[in-house]
Amino acid sequence: MKTVGAYGHAPLQRKNNVNGENRYKMTNELVVRTERLSKSYVADGIETPAVRGVNLKIRAGEFAALAGPSGSGKSTLLHLIGGLLRPTSGQVWIEQQALGGLTPDQLARLRLRRIGFVFQAYNLIPVLTALENTEFVMELQGVPEGQRRDRALELLSILEIAEYADRFPNKLSGGEQQRVAVARAVAARPALVLADEPTANLDSESGQKLMDLLRRLNHERGVTFLFASHDPRLLNQVERVIELHDGVIG
Amino acid sequence: MRFSLRLAWRNLSRNRRRSVLTLLAVLLPVLILDLMWGFSNAVQRNLFESTTQLETGHLQVHRADYRQLQTGLPLIQNVTPVLQIIAQDPAIERFAVRLDLPALAAHGDRSRGVLLRGVRPGKAGQLSALDKWVRTGRPLKAGDRKVALAGSNLLKALHLKVGQSVILLSASLRTGTGVLIPKVVGSLAPPSPQLSRSIIELPLADARSLVHNPQAASSVVVLLKDISGPWDQSRIEREARSLQAKLGPDYLVETWAELAPATVGLFKIIQPLYLAFSLIFFLLGGLVVLNTLYLSVLERTRELGVVLALGSSRRRVLGWIEVEAVLLAGLGALLGSALGLALVGWGSLGFRLPGFYAEFVSIGLNNIFYLSISPAEAALSAGLMFVLALTAAAYPGWRAARLEPVEAMHFAG
Ligand SMILES: Nc1ncnc2c1ncn2[C@@H]1O[C@H](COP(=O)(O)OP(=O)(O)OP(=O)(O)O)[C@@H](O)[C@H]1O
Ligand SMILES: [Mg+2]
Questions:
Q1: Who contacts B130 (Cβ-Cβ below 8 Å, separation ≥6)?
Q2: Which of A226, B255, B351, B393 could form a disulfide with B325, with the two C-beta atoms 3.0–4.6 Å apart?
Q3: Is there a domain that residue B255 lies in?
């Protein structure tokens, strides 16, 4: 396995910024780029355009959010960027790598190593406990067991759900599941986190704790975040809000 | 691999009901199939043994021209050289000399044409002794002379009773005439009424005295080693050819199949019937296995989508499904086989079907059935269900792995 470019763990951006505090921030390297990206769903012969001609650039270290009403195409755009859906037309680049040319397994490898996902419906694996769900992506990555466990437990306790570590998802509340899903996404140390409504089911206190954690990861490790949300509490804390209406940025 | 195993195990133990159902779906067809083979083999063996043990043996040696002879007795004048060859053949378990001859039986003012069967009583002679048919009185014993057993219908026709004597007259151009007046010590009840009207069993030495030849025999009945049913027919035929070669052209070696065409006819009806039943059951059992495993994987398409979305390769997802299917189907096939073989093994000691005694005996069957199954049959039922289960699981797994992760995650099976 090569360890360069999109396929390996590229070293974090180490270009120091002048004021030191944000030393990973705002390099000019693009983590995400889309060009005339469109996606239409076809169901029962009816074509629904969900994303239309989106040109988007997200630089390394950004803390950004897609905002827009329900049905405006936020989830669809996140899925396209993460390579979970093939666009109808247009192209996505992740760290210079065009997704269009990759096989499904190459896409999977890219996701595994570079991208963390928080799904709108959490999508925890029902047969695994909260802790095992958090460890899951690391396990796929081949992180040794002890290290895996430590990282997962640390994240769960930051998110104040360590006491539920051994519970199965069906014994967790929506908010608790959501936090496990976030822990799973960031535990694998991705360069880019795509999070779909990560605060939707949280009260303002735990929502704030979650945002603090993500913000810290953004600051300290330079992880790039792209959210989809219409939660004003989240939108107030991001550096950039990208408005989406009927699948169009504007 | 360890990861797949753990996930598979977790999946199985967390979805206990689904796992148990799937396990049963594989286990039961294997079990029932094993029992079906076992019972089918038992019936065939029963039929085969009733024919060969009591009547035909596996092989019989006659004079070469015995079928052409219309008149006179087709006697082997001196059976000793034949017996010497047979005694040295390692494939032969035991053999018995028979002397069948037509005669006239008389008692008081009544007489009937009868078939005399001269046999050597005792262990070696069991093959042709009619001990199983003895209804009243006693069977022949070693060393008996001037005694006889007669079919019960014949006794009635002659107004003869056990304990009384009967006059036997034989006459032929080749052997001259002979007279014997044995005492009837028992009655026989053979399955066929016709035989019951005509059969008289007597010691071989007495029968030989009627033809004035102490070396005479009409046939030598041979039982081979390790023959349990019609499935051993090719070995029987091979041995028949080998024995024929040793005995030369003066003798004719025939197999039970040539001697009992009626039984062969029965097999020709029974075997395809059982085959058809087995096939139908295979298909039914196969469908249950297919359906259950298919649904159990289809049900998880969503989960598979998540795993794919998180970055697992398709191969890994498929591997995970396959490990699970191998565990379940393997365990099911194994348990099914174990149970099936245990039951067949238990049934191989012999079991009685309640309430059918008269019916079975009247068509010449034993009322005791011995189940048996060959390794090939056991392997086939377990192996086929196993492979079927794997295929059934692989297909929806493969389909899920080919979906785009989002499609799979949104899959509403
Ligand atoms: N699998 C699908 N098949 C058909 N149409 C779909 C599918 N998924 C989404 N759509 C349609 O595409 C449009 C965009 O959906 P999307 O889920 O991206 O919106 P969203 O902005 O995430 O909404 P929400 O805020 O409610 O999550 C909607 O009109 C939706 O009905
Ligand atoms: Mg959405």
A1: B54, B117, B119, B139, B149, B188, B190, B199, B201
A2: B393
A3: no
pLDDT tens track for B302-322: 888 899 999 998 888 888 888
Domain CATH for A125: 3.40.50.300
Contact criterion met (CB < 8 Å) for B314 and A127: no
* A199 inside domain: yes
Which atom of ligand 1 is least distant from the CA of A74? 21
B319 in contact with chain A, both atoms CB, cutoff 8 A: no
- CA A126 to ligand 1 center in whole angstroms: 24
pLDDT in tens, B229-270: 888 999 999 999 999 999 999 999 999 999 888 888 888 888
Question: pLDDT band at residue B189, thresholds of 50, 70 and 90?
Answer: confident
| Three-class SS of A15-36 | CCCCCCCCCCCCCCCEEEEEEE
Tokens representing residue A30 in the block:
């693009």
Q: Cβ separation of A140 and B310 shorter than 8 Å? A: yes
Which of the four pLDDT bands, split at 50, 70 and 90, describes residue A135? very high
Please report which residue ranges of A82-228 form alpha helices under DSSP H. 104-114, 130-141, 145-158, 174-187, 204-221
Task: Please indicate, yes or no, whether residues B300 and B188 belong to a single structural domain of this protein.
Answer: no
A43 CB neighbour count, 10 Å cutoff: 7
Give the DSSP per-residue string, A220-231.
Answer: HH--EEEEEE--
* Beta carbons of A40 and A47 less than 8 angstroms apart: yes
Burial class (CB in 10 A: 0-12, 13-18, 19+), B326: middle
At residue B49, the pLDDT reads 84
- What was the pLDDT predicted at B71? 54
Q: Which domain holds residue B199?
A: 59-226
Helix (H) or strand (E) holding B271: helix B261-298
Domain with A217 in it: 14-29+61-84+101-249
Does residue B102 lie within any of the structural domains?
yes
Q: How does strand B147-151 pair with strand A248-249?
A: unpaired
Facing residues of B136 across strands? B187
Q: What residue's CA is closest to ligand 1, atom 26?
A: A70
Distance (Å, whole) CA B214 – CA B204: 9
Clarify whether residues B31 and B13 are in a common domain: yes
> How far apart, in whole angstroms, are the C-alpha atoms of residue A108 and residue B62?
80
A118: nearest Cα among A61, A171, A186, A166: A186
Distance A108 CA to ligand 2 centre (A): 22
Residue B117 and residue B173 in one domain: yes
Q: Which of B219, B204, B227 is nearest to B252 (CA)?
A: B219
Residues of B in contact with A105 (CB under 8 A): 313-315
Structure tokens at B384: 């086929």
Among B10, B312, B404, whose Cβ lies nearest the Cβ of A140? B312
Q: How many other CB atoms are there within 10 angstroms of residue B97's CB atom? A: 28
- Per-residue DSSP letters for B274-301? HHHHHHHHHHHHHHHHHHHHHHHHHTTH
Number of neighbours of residue B279 by Cβ within 10 angstroms: 10
* B194 C-beta neighbours (distance < 10 Å), count: 10
Are B327 and B361 contained in the same domain?
yes
Angle between helical axes of A145-158 and A130-141 (0-180°, round to 10): 140
| Best mean pLDDT range from B23-32, B171-180, B367-376 | B23-32
